[in-house]
Fold this protein.
Amino acid sequence: MKLTVLIIGCGDIGINLGRELLEEGHEVIGLRRNVEALKGTGIKPLALDLDSLEDADAKSLPQADYVVYTVSADRFEESAYQSAYPEGLKRVLGVMEQHKTPPRRVFFVSSTSVHGQQEGEVVNEESPTDSTSFSGILMREAEQALINHSLPGTVIRFSGIYGPGRDRLIHQVAEGRVAAITPVVYSNRIHRDDCTGIIAHLIRYQERGETLADIYLGSDCEPVTMHNVMMWLAEQLNVEATETMQSPLRRRTSKRCDNQRLLSTGYQFRFPSYREGYAQVLKEGGFLAACRT
């Protein structure tokens, strides 16, 4: 059955998701402030600033079978996060609930930053969300707004997203900089293509008549220390580590994300660990060719 999917905040993940859904024969509408980036993608553009939805009626947003809210804050400030996440999502829900035929489900792309654990604990969807950072607190507020709403909703908490164009870690390693061995800081990550794969999979999962949970952790199958990731990258790039980096104490978290709930739906990771994922990024980004010259 052909579906209509509205992607709100149609950036890198949204465009990638849109292309995947288009290949399956669905209609995709991409909402963003500047729709120039949607040219040539096949995604129907909708130029709109979410702030303008304050007193909007149902006509402000098109009817859709599924809504994917994947907005990014435009800066790392509390006011920007407040606007992008709890306020923006609540506005969208307020409009969508007015539609004669409301969406079958709203997906909110959240973050594992809502978990503030620092001792390498294993966390899952039932673990405390005790982040003390404004970003984690406001993400959690948005999550709860969706879970408590009358519209069916599912939160997907993605861990550290990497992939094409998201290669800051590679550049740090290429400069000889790696994370310290101690204190042990666990890192969780997910390739951009698995982010989109998971969302598309969960839409198909519901369309098959399966019941979705309120929350899924979207993280690959191998939590690993940041030091080990960076040393592996150094080996691939054939560079020697010459500088040890210490993450700021105020931003340091250390946890291991358990993705068993997601795996139980039958999702198969395209990049099960950082090795497969970064191997693809290194190859596609030309990093391996560069290190041989």
Q: What stands out?
A: The first strand starts at residue 4 and ends at 8. Residues 82 and 169 are 28 Å apart (CA to CA).
